[in-house]
Amino acid sequence: MGAVAQKQEPDNGRTAPSGAYAEIFGESLPEFDTVGGSAYAHLEDEKFYILVQDRNVPFRKTIIDGYNRIKASSLSDLRDTKILNTPQGPAACYIMQRPKGGKVFNGRPLGDRLLRSVLLPSILSTFKSLHDEGLSYRFLSPDRIYYETDQQDEIMLLESFSVPPGLQMPFSYESIAHGMVEPAARGEGTESDDYYALGVLITHLLTGRDPIGARSEQSYQQARMTQGSFAACLSGNGITGAVSALLRGLLQDDVEQRWGHRDVMNWLNGELRRAAPTNNTWFMPQPVSMAGRTITDRRALAAALQANPDAADSLYKRKTTIQWVAQIAPGSEAHQALANLMDFGNTTKRVDTTVNGQDAVLSRFCSLLDPQGPVRFRSLCLMPDGVGPFFAANYLQGNKEQLADLKTLMSGNIWHGLMEIRALMAGPESQVDQMNAKVNWLKDAQHINDGLERAFYALNEGLPCRTKEVGDAFVLTPPQLMRAIDKRCLQTTEGIKLDDKDLLAFLAARSPNVRRYILSLANMKPDQKNGILLKLFGELHLHYGSPRLKGLAKLFQNRFRKRINELRSKTRRDLLIKRVGEVVEEGDVSTLAKLVNIDRLMAADERGLAQARQKIKKLDRAMAFASRSISPADPTAIAKAAQISCYLGGFVVIGSLMFRFL
Amino acid sequence: MARKQSGGMSSGGASWIWYVLLISMGLAVSPGACMVFAAGMAPTMVATIGLSGPSAGQRLLTMACFNLAGVIPFVFNVFNGDDSAGTVLVDVFSWGVMLGAAGCGAMVNYVGPIIAAQVLTNMSMSDRENIDKIRKKLIAEWGDAITK
Q1: Residue A69: which residues within 8 A CB-CB, separation 6 or more?
Q2: Confidence at residue A289, expressed as pLDDT on a 0 to 100 scale
Q3: Is there a contact between A304 and A295 (Cβ–Cβ < 8 Å)?
Q4: Is A642's Cβ below 8 Å from some Cβ in B?
Q5: Per-position b or e across A118-157, b if 16+ CB within 10 A of its CB
Q6: ipTM value of the model?
Q7: How far is residue A66 from each of residues A71, A135, A306, A436, measured CA to CA in Å?
Q8: Which letter does DSSP use for residue A77 in this model?
Q9: Of A2, A145, B16, B69, which is most buried by a Cβ count within 10 Å?
Q10: To 5 degrees, how large is the angle CA A246–CA A248–CA A250?
Q11: How far is B28 from chain A (nearest CA, A)?
Q12: How far apart are CA A425 and CA A419, in angstroms?
């Protein structure tokens, strides 16, 4: 990167003064911009460009983490990741390989030769590398494909991690299921979704225009559902022959039948194989009339039911509907399980008649109709693995209705019921399992600050902490947060609010081992809060083995000074003050947390004080006894004298006997 | 309690039994020595009746010891035949020794408490200093609140 990069540390996360970043940030490169990242030329090395991540857009951490493992691909190389002072303030900056040969697609149709010899092999190798690592690309678009060099013999795909999956992909590139949801909620998807997008891309490049053409998204979607994606995509564009066979395979709406890497490689090698004919499994033998139109497709019916929930009630309680569910359910066991989940067809079971219950039944019915499609609940329509970015977008925009619906969806058993139906109907979805775990956690945490902040961070690992307590510092991990707090403490005399809801939510989401402390902070008095916060940061310090945190330790020292001075035992107090001073100098927050267990200390102090009071009372009694005047008539004096006199008398008798006989 | 307060009388009663027993045995062995013993120990017998108050038993024992020390030489002289009982009982010197010894016992019983009171007063002063030292140390450690 070179020495000119302005790291965040010298400025403690504050906006850099003008010119501090100018040495490496060149002119803006809008052609490489994404919704989540602004691109700048790299002045040090023209082979690279700098992508500045927008801190309000969650990046795809799984891709960043997997970048080193992705080999033999045409993906733009990620050379370095740094937190730098940028024109937008401190931010995560990615030093990306910069393509030199310009865009592959310039608006004119490409030749078949270029497709076969350059484009497809490169994209396939990239997809293979990504998919082997369990990742998907999900950002395929003609605007993201460049020639790597001026020779224009190799292509380069630009990065896909700076935006949530599918967010910026053209509508037509999404499969029917993903096309039903809004861009932020499209989800990671699977490799099958990448191959679908590849089919659309090939059509786009060969014809020179987006397959959607002049049609609206709605009419294109309708056409895809009625005719199938292949027919809708290729309508009237004149693609025939072998390429048509390839596209038929790639644009299969049935995921099981859709072509993958091996099929496309075979096609490239000249193997002639016809894709399976389109089998519309979503076709309903009994059409349903709703809102003035006749619906024959289950996916369209699910969408229509969500739009007209009042019409749903009469529909899914019909006997014919129950029989029809029996037909589409994959087996008798599944059918029984579905019947239980659906609350219908089971007269002995009490039907949930609450608003939530009715909405949940409708949502389950929609999942039954379209198990591979989006989750539909009230105003929500999202892919299960797209909850994170969707949640982030609504949280940042403050969309209360959607957030309330999300909360209802996640906090009860509605979500799990839907996932069960999806698993029974369409098989388990691996990414959904991870999401289920997070949703479970949200249920636990919802009683504090209604859980929204925690959901925001837990569902989006690619979002930095938004707390204002550390200024503009870019914080993506708990150790970074601790360092930022430490520096802030050293620089400012103003107190830092360590129980800031964003700060705690971030820690709870990123570091599950301290979650119990955060949960116990609710309804605490300030003194108790400080004790728990010290324990929390002590554990974090120990867990992450962070370097010296002198500022943070000093902050806690100041907060506990009054309490320590309240200790009655002078020895204990002086010893503690001395030891705390030493630990603060060492910046060891974990030891400080063990040392200043203020509740334990106070309890020990109280016990000591009570014992000392007892001792003082005893001493007072002894003093009163010792202070009394002793006269010869005092029984003690008489007794002592009598005792000694007895001995003396004995000696005298012995003396007398000795005198007589010796 | 009443029994304890009349402890002197009780112990005196026991002494009487022993005393009569001893004399009866002595009369059988050596009547002269026995007479001298009985006459010489008369102050103790009187004290047995009259002595009461705290530690009466011990004080009586002190008195008896001193009295006995004065009687022993003359009793053994009569017993050995060196002197006769009559010689001893009419001799002023022997009465002076026996009664003087008993008087010494009474003196010790009288002076003992005076000396003991003085010694104990001196010892209390030292105790007070030690207690005060410990008290000050505790107040320095815990503050004035400890006394409240």
Answers
A1: A133
A2: 84
A3: yes
A4: yes
A5: bbbbbbbbbbbbbbebebbbbbbbbbbbbbbeeeeeebbb
A6: 0.82
A7: 10, 8, 38, 23
A8: P
A9: B69
A10: 70
A11: 23
A12: 10
Overall residue count recorded for chain A in this entry: 662
Alpha-carbon A197 to chain mean position: 26
User: Which residue, A322, A319, A288, is CA-closest to A303?
Assistant: A288
The whole-model pTM stands at 0.75
Give A83's strand partners.
Answer: A92
A632 CB near a chain B CB, below 8 Å? yes
Tokens of A292: 């003035």
Testing the interface with B: which of A611, A656, A661 to mutate, by most B Cβ within 10 A?
A: A656
Q: In whole angstroms, give the CA distance from residue B109 to residue B137.
A: 43
With a CB cutoff of 8 Å and minimum separation 6, the contacts of B133 are none
Residues of chain A with pLDDT under 70: 1-22, 72, 275-279, 316-317, 319, 322, 325-326, 328-356, 412, 427-450
Tokens of B119: 């010694």
Checking DSSP bridges between strand A89-97 and strand A37-42, what pairing results, if any?
unpaired
Q: What is the pLDDT of residue B8?
A: 42
pLDDT recorded at residue A331: 65
Give Cα A637 to chain centroid, integer Å: 86
Query: Tell me, what amino acid is at A547?
Result: P
Radius of gyration of chain B (CA): 24
Shortest CA distance from A610: residue in chain B: B146
Instruction: Round to whole Å and give the CA distance between A346 and A352.
Output: 12
Report residues of chain B scoring pLDDT below 70: 1-15
Give the single-character DSSP code of A496.
Answer: P
